[in-house]
Amino acid sequence: MLVNFLAHIYLSNNEDLITIGNFMADGIKGKKYLNYPEDIQRGILLHRWIDSYTDSHLIVKQSTKRLHHKYGHYSGVIVDIFYDHFLAHNWKNYHETPLEDFVLNFYKLLQDNHDLLTPRIQKMMIPMMEQNWLLSYASLEGIQTVLYNMNILTKRRVPMDEAVQDLQEHYGAFQDEFETFFEKLRAFAKVKLKDIEV
User: Fold this and answer.
1) Which residues are CB-neighbours of 188 under 8 A, at least 6 positions away?
2) What is the model's pTM?
3) Number of domains within the chain
4) How far apart are CA 3 and CA 18, in angstroms?
């Protein structure tokens, strides 16, 4: 379930095929990544390393613990969405290209490489671009919409659409955790990009 779109795209270091691989990696299981060009393979492997690092990090666990009593194992999905919000909302602290331009460039990258995308991503990119998901993450209203859609997608097993209230209630704590963790994740991804061989 790919929910932290923006962070994975950002951590691909503006390398086109690595970005594509990192973006669509969730739908490519096991060794099926070997069917793709080498830089897409690197992006897929980078995505897996990022997920593993994130899931095991104590700061992220601190964020998810705050939600766990209400949302169970979906608290990790919700924190991913919260963290993408802070990245988008504070984008100018992380990238010299304005978020609007960065997002448009990414959408063009998907369109230019449509044949390399998995069927799932080919289908998903249409509503993603039409509704401008990536840009919407910067606002609380956008996060509310994302959580509402995730609630439907997960068949309302937990009230994910209510999680924006938790974000507002603990906004400062979540933001502090994101900022501390994301600096560590950026350094980790930078090293992994150099180390990954296929």
Assistant:
1) 49, 50, 53
2) 0.94
3) 1
4) 18
